Every structure is written in structure tokens, then in C-alpha cells.
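Quick review question:
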């Protein structure tokens, strides 16, 4: 099948074939999540759970790849499924049309090989970290605001978010710095590359490290959290 020909050499034939067996949960289908779902779907990740209780609005059109003039007011997770049915009908998309919370998080995340954080709430990120630790599932974290972004890979027990965020109930800075089109696309790409490396167990990932991105001055710095 020629669909995945251009994956090969980046991936081995065996690695590429294995992608169809992985189950990945993407929490959030907006700015980050839309791009993440698009990329892992095109790669050939066989089972994707898309979680979001929100609906597209006009303010999403500047950056959220799943949004368009025709699906405003439609649920983001459902629209992710519709989009991927057009892009890659070989994969299975399970849309969860609710927000994740302490009562449903374990049921939603269980039986996945990997979870990708695409939310905009620090409190929800800690909820994901706690649940992934209990379920022994790796978590890829990403966050964006204006010109800036960050990515880290969290394995069960690492508690990396405890180092990055000192205040679990703090509000993010997205609203004060804005969200253009390019930052979520870049950060989502890095999250997907981290996810792929974890799944195929190859390369060096951002475990116990955080990649800090400043696109205004093209400054990329990896902070070692072990020091």
C-alpha cells in the first residue's frame, strides 16, 4: 500500500506496520489537539480517542485546523472524527464529547498506549498526570501562549508537572499573550514526534527535560530537570 510509502526510511517497515496497533488518546481537539490528531492520523496510528466537550466558535478559526466556516457550533471531537474519515479511513477514531474530569478520567484513559495533553488548563494537566501515573501510561505534555511553547515527555512516576507548575490552580497565560496560528502547529509537531519516539522506543526523548520555545527570537532551549 502506497499510503505510508513516505513514512519508510524515517520508520522501518516493521515500525510502520506496528503503528496500526497503537491506541493513543488526545485530550483536547482545539489548537494543539487538532494538529496532533491530523498528524498521528496521517502517520497511521490505528486507534485514536479524541476527547473534547467544547464546540467550535468563530474565534477558533485563526488557528484550529479542524475548524471552518461550516462547522461552527459543532462539537470538536465529533468534527475530528469526520475530518479523519476523509484523511485516513484505515484508522479508527473514537470521539468523546465531554470534558475530562476527576470522575471520568480513568475510564477514558485506560487501555491506551499513550496520552497526549492538548488542554489549556493547568488543573486538567495535573489530572492527566495523576491518572496516567495510576494507569502506568506515558503522557506527552505541550502548552502554548503567543510566541511561546513548551513540551515534555512524562513517564509514570516522573511527576514532571510538579516541577514546571508550582501552583496547580493557577491560570494559564494564553489569554494575555494570545494564540496565533503558527505556535500550536509547531508545538503539536514536537508533541507528535515525542509520541512516536515513545511508541517505537527509539531516539532521545524529553523525559525529565522540558523544551522551551521562543519563536519571537528563535530561541529553543532544553532544560534538564534532573539538575
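Suggested answer, residue by residue:
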Amino acid at each position: 500500500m502506497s499510503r505510508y510509502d513516505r513514512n519508510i526510511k524515517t520508520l522501518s517497515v516493521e515500525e510502520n506496520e506496528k503503528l496500526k496497533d497503537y491506541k493513543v488518546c488526545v485530550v483536547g481537539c482545539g489548537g494543539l489537539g487538532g494538529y496532533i490528531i491530523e498528524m498521528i492520523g496521517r502517520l497511521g496510528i490505528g486507534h485514536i480517542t479524541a476527547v473534547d466537550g467544547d464546540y467550535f466558535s468563530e474565534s477558533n478559526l485563526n488557528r484550529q485546523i479542524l475548524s471552518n466556516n461550516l462547522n461552527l457550533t459543532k462539537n470538536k471531537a465529533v468534527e475530528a472524527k469526520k475530518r479523519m474519515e476523509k484523511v485516513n479511513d484505515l484508522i479508527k477514531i473514537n470521539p468523546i464529547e465531554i470534558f475530562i474530569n476527576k470522575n471520568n478520567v480513568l475510564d477514558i484513559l485506560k487501555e491506551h498506549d499513550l496520552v497526549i495533553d492538548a488542554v489549556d488548563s493547568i488543573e486538567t494537566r495535573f489530572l492527566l498526570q495523576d491518572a496516567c501515573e495510576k494507569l502506568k501510561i506515558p503522557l506527552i505534555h505541550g502548552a502554548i501562549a503567543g510566541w511561546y511553547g513548551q513540551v515534555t515527555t512524562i513517564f509514570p512516576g516522573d511527576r514532571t508537572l510538579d516541577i514546571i507548575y508550582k501552583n496547580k490552580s493557577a491560570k494559564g497565560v494564553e489569554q494575555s499573550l494570545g494564540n496565533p496560528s503558527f505556535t500550536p502547529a509547531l508545538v503539536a509537531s514536537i508533541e507528535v514526534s515525542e509520541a512516536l519516539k515513545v511508541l517505537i522506543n527509539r531516539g532521545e526523548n524529553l523525559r525529565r527535560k522540558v523544551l522551551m520555545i521562543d519563536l519571537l527570537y528563535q530561541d529553543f532551549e532544553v532544560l534538564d530537570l534532573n539538575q
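Why it works: The mean pLDDT is 96. The longest strand covers residues 139-145.
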